[in-house]
Amino acid sequence: MELPRGTVYLALAMLALAATVNSSCLCLNNKHAVNCASISSTCRCTSFGSNVTVDCGTLSSKCLLMKAEIYRKNTGRSNRPQHAIRDNDGIYDPECDDNGNFKAKQCNGTDTCWCVNSAGVRRTDKGGKDIKCDEVVRTSWISMEMKHSGTETDLDKPSLESEIREQLSQRYKLNKNHITATYEKPFVFIELKQNATEKSATDVDIVDVAYYFEKDIKGDSLITGPRLTFDSSTGPLQSNDVIIYYIDDKAPEFTMQHLNPGLY
């Protein structure tokens, strides 16, 4: 019996879709991604520890990456590098929305909650479950500071500053217009600035870039492939730590008696 032409076309279309969906792929921009499949030439995976699908062609959100890290730690699946540095203050199990972004209100599993910015950093005193967090205040400016080691030769200032901007742009897919680098031996200062109006739906967020960068510097890269390196005309930059400050569109709401050292 001859099948209707429409049925044949539908069957062929379903077979073609299955072929694109069922092919496996490697998530080069997120080592914590699982259940990967190539859909229309795009590698899509599930972020470990959640049910959110991530596009492996770009950076995953900081919220999903933190959640994956906590989940790996709690399930005994963490594979820490030999020289990894644990951030006891900054890591927690966050609540992410359906897009993988931080929810404004975060809690620690008990009755203690607080409000965070778009970087997931606490911006209020801790309170009870009734604390009000009306919005996720955007972090539009991130300041990062590194102290280099491993060279007795003065690094070439213009060359290194240009190299840093180029490498950050290429590796993390961030427009160089959002990156400023300044070298003052032995310190490197990197500024990431990105207002909400400057970010489209397909652009990476500076919050995610800073998290990926921090992981790279501390030897726990989330990206598969060559490690991050900065080479000036007079030698490479070597550092294993970075200090990060977050500046929001609105001032934090800490009371004076609860201010913590390190707030910018």
Would you spell out the secondary-structure blueprint of this structure?
Blueprint: H1 5-22, E1 33-39, E2 42-47, E3 53-55, H2 62-74, E4 105-107, E5 113-115, E6 139-147, H3 157-172, E7 179-184, E8 187-193, H4 206-217, E9 230-232, E10 235-237, E11 243-248
Antiparallel strand pairs: 1-2, 2-3, 4-5, 6-8, 6-11, 7-8, 9-10
Describe this structure as you would to a colleague.
- The protein is α+β, with helices and mostly antiparallel strands.
- It contains four helices and eleven strands.
- The protein has helices spanning 5-22, 62-74, 157-172, 206-217, and strands at 33-39, 42-47, 53-55, 105-107, 113-115, 139-147, 179-184, 187-193, 230-232, 235-237, 243-248.
- The strands form four sheets. A four-stranded antiparallel β-sheet has the order 7-8-6-11.
- The longest helix is centred in the first third of the chain and has 18 residues, at 5-22.
- It is globular, with a radius of gyration of 22 Å.
- Mean pLDDT is 84; it is low at 10-22, 77-89 and 257-264.
Give short descriptive properties of this protein:
264 residues; alpha+beta; four-stranded antiparallel sheet; three-stranded antiparallel sheet; globular; disordered C terminus
Sheet with the most strands: spatial strand order:
7-8-6-11
Low-confidence stretches: 10-22, 77-89, 257-264
Number of strands: 11
- What does the overall shape look like? globular
Query: What profile does the largest beta sheet have?
Result: 4 strands, antiparallel
Spatial gap, N to C terminus? 75 Å
Task: Work out the helix count.
Answer: 4
Helix percentage range: 10-25%
| pLDDT averaged residue by residue | 84
| Percentage of β-strand residues | 15-25%
SSE class: alpha+beta
Radius of gyration over C-alpha positions, nearest whole angstrom: 22 Å
